[in-house]
Amino acid sequence: MPKAPNTPAELASWLASAPPLPPEFYNRDPQWVARELLGKLLVRRTQSELLAGRIVETEAYLGQDDPAAHAAAGRTPRNFVLWGPPGRAYVYFIYGNHYCLNVSCLPQGVAGCVLFRALEPVAGRTEMARARHLDPAQMHGRAARLLTSGPGRLSEAMGITRPRDNDKDLTEAASDLLVLDDGHRPRRISVTSRIGITKAAGHPLRYLIEGNEFVSGKKNISG
DNA sequence: TACATGATGCCCT
DNA sequence: GGGCATCATGTAG
Q: Alpha carbon of A59 to those of A93, A147, A169, A176, A192: distances in Å?
């Protein structure tokens, strides 16, 4: 594992060159991947931008036997990525407004994924604010939650769209969308039922860093 | 070709 | 706490 950066300058330098999590990380049960993704960094790095957010909330979707999963309907042109190799971005458009980012899990031929639900902004806050059509000057304290607290919000902040990013390999070093491990480990993790679904709604498959203010949901605004 | 639906977010009360 | 915008997708006809 690479050495954990300490100062913001070190972090930026490290973000620009660190290796992504390998395919093996994703080649297992989505429940395990969802839990272990907490505390990792989702990074968009191109020549013109460096955006990074710490993953603080995820949900596991188990595959064809999970009624709430897109994979339950079987393989279609929309969801084929779920059956692809582990570590690929599955991006879909929802409610006529929003993109959501998932990463494929398990070996090729077996469906399963993890939904990214919330990030804590780490680098590129100003660019994220512009992408979200918010005033960068206001993005401090609680208002910063508006940047990346929610699957639609984080996708907009990171510039994630289906035409641009669907089926992108998040484990390839040359990719502009990656997940990195900077050595951070969450103190305490909570598990709850998944948000916004009607089928199989009772299963404890949502994972979050306890006490983190960037976890989605109005409950978390207080304090 | 038509229609129902949704792994959301925003604005209003 | 509730209403609703807005459209890609899948399915039915």
A: 17, 19, 20, 23, 9
- The secondary structure of A126-157, three-state, reads HHHHHHCCCCHHHCCHHHHHHHHECHHHHHHH
How far apart (Å, rounded) are the C-alpha atoms in residues A63 and A217?
25
Counting DSSP H helices and E strands in chain A, the numbers are 7, 8
Q: pLDDT tens digits, residue range A10-24?
A: 999 999 889 999 999
Residues in chain A: 223
Task: Using the CA of A151, give the nucleotide whose C1' is nearest.
Answer: B8
A78 touches strand B (CB under 7 A): no
Protein footprint on strand B: which nucleotides are under 7 Å from a CB? 6-10
Report the amino acid identity of residue A137.
A
Residues 49-108 of A, Cβ under 7 A from nucleic strand C: 73-74, 76-79, 92-93, 95-97
Reference A115, options A125, A101, A97; nearest CA is: A101
- Measure the CA–CA gap between A162 and A167, rounded to whole angstroms: 9
pLDDT tens readout for residues A31-60:
999 999 999 999 999 888 999 999 999 999
Q: Is the CB of A116 under 7 A from strand B?
A: no
How much is the pTM?
Answer: 0.96
**Which nucleotide is at minimal CA–C1' distance from A115?**
B7
